Amino acid sequence: MPRKNREKSATGIYHVMLRGINRQDIFEDAEDYKQFLKMLRLLVDRKDDNNLPLPPLCSVYAYCLMNNHVHLLIREEGENIGESIKRIGVAYARYFNRKNSRIGHLFQDRFQSEPVNDIAYFGTLMKYIHQNPVKAGLVKEVRDYPWSSWAEYEGRGSENGICNCAAVIRRFGWQNLYEFVCTPVNENCILDVDSRDERNMTDADVIAEIKDFYGIDNPTDIQKLEKEQRDDILRRLCLTGVKLRQLSRITGISYGTINRAKSGSVEPSP
Predict the structure, then answer these.
(1) Measured between alpha carbons, how far is residue 215 from residues 37, 48, 92, 143, 146 in Å?
(2) Does residue 265 sit in helix, strand or coil?
(3) CA–CA distance, 153 with 151 (Å, rounded to integer)
């Protein structure tokens, strides 16, 4: 079957995940992390042969480098998202293979991307991306992880930062952003989408995820939302591994409606 075309973002902003082939590690030491960030910086801080500035190929709002995958919150600028991700993926794979005397693919054949079409979801991803190392048990607090963009937001990054922190802080306000991103999510809420295909969530897990990421205390309140917003939440929950029948039972929304939301189909007229 031909591959499904990537869903286009109305804002040009995407949540992108690059994953090591067969879930293998893509970072083995500090130099690897630094090299990837150096390559990412070249997409936003470009110079010509005379060292004069060139337009950026993309804008980066957040990143987190885990041992076997990378999360990016990124906006298209000078080229489409596929070209930017291919550019950095090829360059890093060439570096990694040369360093480790290996050949072959380093990343899974196709990176994952999800459009970010509203500010609420953008905020959710800011928290999601920076909380990844905490949920994985690597650190106790967001600020303790050295390979995410949060150091830039706290002003601890290099002078030539990668992220457009100013735009995000201007939109959310520093105190609101800090409190939202750094407040731990409910312990029952599973953040790591790298494991989403293997998730076996209890009803309590799903209810906690709906509360933590969408601010909805009672899952049945999803029924009261406008159709577009309702279907968007249902689709995102399905994409993170929640079973359709389980979601139907928890929300009181019919299986058929959830299935149509998941596939993006139009509901039949009454």
Answers:
(1) 33, 46, 38, 24, 29
(2) coil
(3) 5
**What local confidence, expressed as pLDDT, does residue 238 receive?**
80
Buried b (16+ CB within 10 A) or exposed e, 119-141: eebbbbbbbbbbbbbbeeeeeee
- Contact call for residues 108 and 19 (beta carbons, < 8 A): yes
Give the Cα separation of 270 and 253 in Å (integer): 17
pLDDT tens-digit profile of 173-198?
999 999 999 987 654 444 444 444 33
Give me the pLDDT at residue 159, please. Answer: 57
Per-residue pLDDT averaged across 63-80, rounded?
A: 91
The whole-number average pLDDT for the span 190-215 is 64
Predicted structure pTM score: 0.68
Report the alpha-carbon distance of residue 232 to residue 264 in Å, rounded. 9
DSSP codes joined into one string, 173-209: -HHHHHHHHHSPPPTT----GGGGGG----HHHHHHH
Whole-angstrom distance, CA of residue 115 vs CA of residue 5: 12
pLDDT band at 240 (very low <50, low <70, confident <90, very high): low
Q: What share of the chain is helix, strand, coil (3-state, %, to 5)?
A: 50, 15, 40
Q: DSSP 3-state assignment of 166?
A: helix
Average pLDDT value for the chain: 83
Whether the CB-CB separation of 94 and 106 falls below 8 Å is answered with: no
Cβ–Cβ under 8 Å, residues 246 and 240: no
Which segment of 12-16, 43-47, 197-201 scores lowest on mean pLDDT? Answer: 197-201
Sheet of 112-115: strand order equals 58-65, 69-76, 13-19, 112-115
